[in-house]
Design goal:
The complex is a heterodimer of chains A (about 375) and B (about 220). By secondary structure, chain A is mostly helical. Chain A has helices at about 5-15, 20-35, 40-50, 55-65, 70-85, 90-100, 105-120, 125-135, 140-155, 155-170, 175-180, 200-215, 215-230, 235-245, 250-265, 270-280, 285-300, 305-315, 320-335, 340-350, 355-370, 375-385. Chain A folds into two domains: about 5-140 and about 375-385, Tetratricopeptide repeat domain (Serine Threonine Protein Phosphatase 5, Tetratricopeptide repeat), CATH 1.25.40; about 175-370, Serine Threonine Protein Phosphatase 5, Tetratricopeptide repeat. The model of chain A has no long low-confidence stretch (mean pLDDT about 95). Chain B folds into two domains: about 1-80, Orthogonal Bundle (Methyltransferase, Methionine Synthase (B12-binding Domains), Chain A, domain 1); about 90-215, Cobalamin-binding domain (Rossmann fold, 3-Layer(aba) Sandwich), CATH 3.40.50.280. Chain B is built from eleven helices and five strands, in the order H-H-H-H-E-H-E-H-E-H-H-E-H-H-E-H. The mean pLDDT of chain B is about 95. Chain B has about 220 residues and is α/β, with parallel strands linked by helices. Classes of the chains: A mainly alpha (about 375), B alpha/beta (about 220).
Chain lengths: ~375, ~220
């Protein structure tokens, strides 16, 4: 196999930057130089997929596979194209099977295979595929979302809802939301050494948030203790304490400190979140959780997560129509929000809208693979493997 | 009064005394506070006191954890039951003969059961006469028949005919499935009293039908 020529590198660069049309042109230029390069056909397939040209994506990916049956990125593009085009379940199942064989360690291949099987009404086989995905990675949220949907079909929402919530907890977006409420974002800076933090409230709180972000809960808790020793009525410190308890499954402790934080100041969104999340973990408190998340959704209306949390609480109250509106709002705010798409699919299933439900799951699959950067991971591995 | 009760409940938590906590709750209930209000009016303020005591260092980590365990033990006394109370309404559900699409039925059955209704699930591929037979056995006055194909949807008329032949026109026949949702006239033509368009719709229509049946 030849190394990537300059035309291929240009196409890659443009594609990685999201310049779809010039990247397609660069791919065709690269194919004029070497029409038998599976890498370029695979890249072209991904670009066609990004532009919703499914038939063209199928053609390009198929050519890549014909040239090299081990071209993993082409299988991904082909499977996603089949799924999004719809009505090609047999082919889709075959492609995901192939990808799982070419890359047996690839969790997403098993998840996708399950989704293709479920769309073709092979429910039991689908469940086995998702279980296989979880055996590879027990924290794979999409496999959990799918198992929750399967539980909904068989046993109803009461059985499915804990699965949706569990999957949501595995999904890092919920923690990211908590930190975004506190104005903490991942800027690549590591958390400070707790022994070197300045002995003032703001420095300690910032360090505690940074440590909590890195899941160093004990050091974060020690810093919070120091803040509370000086001012036990610090609502932001109380909210973070609640979050730390929540992460260690100490739900009542989290609830207690969040309630205290809100008694001090009702305008502490982090405490509101912790309280709602505590309520959501207790059966019988869906009404309370819905009230709290409803307030949070009003406080930060442009954040999709509180709308999803509200929707899940409404599902627990059998208010499916209202849950649908909340999910739709979340999807409107963030079309790539996998948890919202799966929740919306669940509500659509309660309305007997199967094709729309599966459409939402297919959209979730597409955005999930994009979010993971899966195509580029497979592409880079494949390119390196042949050079 | 409420503040005082919350303080006593908090004290019971910290003393790790669930029996005392329940006594406090029962007294508040006896004073006229509804079950649905206990969590907000009593439990939440007591938990806030607990959080405050931990934050100020008035109680140590161990006591906080133990108090949280007591709070957990008595939570069911201050919340509404997680399963709905039996409504006494019996609903017969099933998928019509020659149709095996069960997902709609299963989701709706689970929702009705969760809401406290007594659901008799006849499964799939159910003959029209069986709906009548089981409705009479269970003294049910509401029957939901599911059909996912136009052909099988038309055959739901056989269920209404069976009810009529037995002089049971009082049974409320509800139909569910894509063909009925798409064509209201089809539902009317098979003698249905209403169309169920999903689980929430089933909950609303069954509640309404039960109300009417009760009033009749």
């Amino acid at each position: 196999m030849s190394p990537r020529n300059r035309a291929v590198l240009l196409a890659e660069g443009l594609s990685r930057q999201g310049h779809v049309a010039p990247a397609v042109e660069a791919c065709f230029e690269a194919l004029r130089l070497d029409e038998a390069d599976p890498l370029v056909h695979a890249l072209l397939a991904d670009l066609f997929l990004a532009g919703d040209f499914y038939d063209e994506a199928i053609k390009a990916a198929s050519e890549a596979i014909e040239l090299d049956p081990d071209c993993a990125p082409a299988y991904l593009a082909l499977g996603l194209a089949y799924d999004r085009r719809g009505g090609m379940w047999d082919q889709s199942i075959l492609v995901w099977h192939e990808l799982a064989e070419v890359r047996p360690d690839l969790v997403t291949a098993h998840v996708q295979l399950g989704e293709a099987l479920a769309a073709a009404a092979f429910e039991e086989e689908a469940i086995e595929a998702w279980k296989a995905a979880l055996a590879l990675d027990a924290a794979e949220p999409r496999a959990m979302y799918n198992l929750a949907v399967a539980a909904l079909k068989k046993e109803g929402m009461a059985t499915a809802l804990p699965g949706f919530r569990k999957a949501g907890e595995l999904d890092p977006s919920q923690d990211d939301f908590f930190f975004s409420l506190a104005g903490v974002y991942d800027d690549g800076t590591p958390a400070p050494d707790p022994t070197e933090v300045e002995p003032d409230r703001d420095a300690r709180l910032a360090a505690a948030f940074a440590l909590a972000f890195e899941e160093d809960f004990f050091n974060a808790a020690d810093l919070i203790r120091l803040i509370l020793d000086e001012d036990p009525d610090d609502p932001e410190a109380l909210a973070l304490a609640g979050y730390l308890y929540l992460k260690q499954e100490a739900v009542n402790e989290a609830m207690a400190v969040a309630l205290r934080g809100l008694a001090v100041s009702t305008k502490t969104p982090t405490a509101v979140y912790v309280l709602g999340a505590s309520f959501a973990k207790r059966t019988g408190l869906n009404r309370n959780a819905a009230r709290v998340f409803g307030a949070l959704a009003k406080a930060v209306p442009d954040e999709p997560m509180p709308h999803v949390l509200l929707a899940e609480s409404l599902l627990g109250l059998q208010r499916y129509g209202q849950a649908k509106q909340a999910y739709l709002r979340a999807v409107e705010l963030d079309p790539t929000f996998v948890r919202a798409r799966f929740g919306l699919a669940a509500v659509l299933l309660t309305e007997g809208e199967y094709s729309r439900a599966h459409h939402e799951i297919r959209r979730a699959a597409y955005h999930d693979t994009r979010r993971q950067g899966l195509f580029w991971r497979l592409y880079d591995d494949y390119a390196q493997g042949r050079e | 009064m409420a503040d005082d009760a919350a303080a006593r409940l908090y004290q019971a938590f910290v003393s790790q005394d669930p029996a005392q906590a329940i006594t406090v709750i029962e007294k508040v209930k006896a004073s006229g506070v509804a079950q649905a209000q206990l969590f907000d009016q009593l439990f939440a303020p007591a938990m806030s006191l607990l959080g405050g005591a931990w934050a100020s260092g008035a109680i140590d980590e161990y006591t906080f954890t133990q108090a949280a365990v007591v709070a957990e033990q008595i939570t069911s006394f201050v919340t509404l039951p997680s399963t709905a109370q039996d409504t006494g309404i019996t609903v017969i559900v099933g998928v019509i003969h020659k149709d095996t699409h069960a997902i709609d039925k299963d989701i709706t059955t689970a929702a009705l059961t969760e809401a406290g209704h007594r659901v008799v699930d006849l499964g799939v591929d159910v003959h029209p006469a069986e709906f009548l037979e089981r409705a009479e056995e269970a003294a049910a006055r509401i029957v939901i028949v599911f059909a996912s194909m136009t052909g099988t949807a038309r055959s739901v008329a056989g269920v209404r005919e069976a009810f009529g032949a037995a002089g049971r026109d009082d049974i409320v026949l509800l139909v569910a499935g894509g063909p009925f949702a798409a064509d209201t006239a089809l539902a009317k033509s098979v003698g249905a009293n209403g169309i169920v368009r999903g689980a929430e719709s089933a909950l609303k229509i069954v509640a309404k039908a039960a109300q009417k049946a009760g009033a009749a």
